Fold:
Amino acid sequence: MDVHYKFSNVTFRDKDGRVVRRERLMHPLRDQLRQRLSRWPRGTPIVLEASFGWGWLSDLLSEMGLEPQLSNCYKLEQMRKARGWVKTNKKDADMLSLLPFETTAWWEVWLAPPQVRNRREQMRFRGDLVAVQTAVKSRIHAIFHRHGLFHEFSDLFGGKGRRFLAELCIGGSEYLSPQALQALRGQVKLLDHLRGQLADIERILHRQLAKTPLISWLKKIDGFGLILSHVLAAEIGKIERFRNHKALASYSLLAPRSKDTGQDDPDHSPLGRHLGTCGNRTLKWAFIEAAHGAVRSGGRWRAMFDRVTCGGRKDRNRGYIKVARELVKVVYVVWSKGLDYQPDPPARPGSDKNKKRSRSGTGQLLHPMVHALRA
Structure:
């Protein structure tokens, strides 16, 4: 099924892989869409491309007794190029209908259930609000710069700074024209509205904290608070879909990749190891944000950061990426095994930390020597 905003093209094949029928579904006519889907055989696998707008349609297909499956759009693009197919709606539907006949499900990706998608919608909406709030603050600062207004507050949007802005919006200033004052009042009013929406979302997240033990576990990890814990739970969804922490790091764009070649380009410097670009960028942002907080907390995270950056003097971004990669391991273990986070993890069985040191050649435990005091 090749899905678009207003319509979808569907190609049906028999058990031998031959095309038997093609249909075109119109999305705005929801009742007619349900009727047509109800005529399809129940249990039929329907392959959709994991691009934009597949969520509601996959829910409708499941409701009608069908089996929606998601395919990796990047792999399909390479498949299309390898076969030399042009990109048309008909060809896309034909190619998607061929995937269930593959010997292995190399093309399939996880189909997030509705509750996971709803949680992602909530957290991404909060991220959008924060981005708009930052832009509004920048525009208020720009008004001050353009008209030569000065203040002595370390944070113009803190407690005292907000009172100053409120008085300025009411009384105005001799340095502000009526048009500039109107713009300032509008920006401050918009900022208040955004803060109200952010406060509403935070209250909802606090209420969900008692209902989801997972958030309580993640919140105890260094660098993760209420917001980042909810972001992890929403974006990962199901930890069992990752084989190990390496797979989670690759999905989070924190696994280093190499691009070696037998002959270097003399006009460009070697690329070397770098982070990938095909993955979940929201998770990458969350882990790097948590890495900043973990480094500030000190302990082994600060020691790890200092070791990579020579005490914070160079390659600081690489140091935060290193800490973020280690946080991926911690999150995977805490989530997959249901354990509470420990700042100092216990030693592994058989490691040197569990072994008691002994004197060489004697087999006796090593005790520090105490010199006897002379009388």
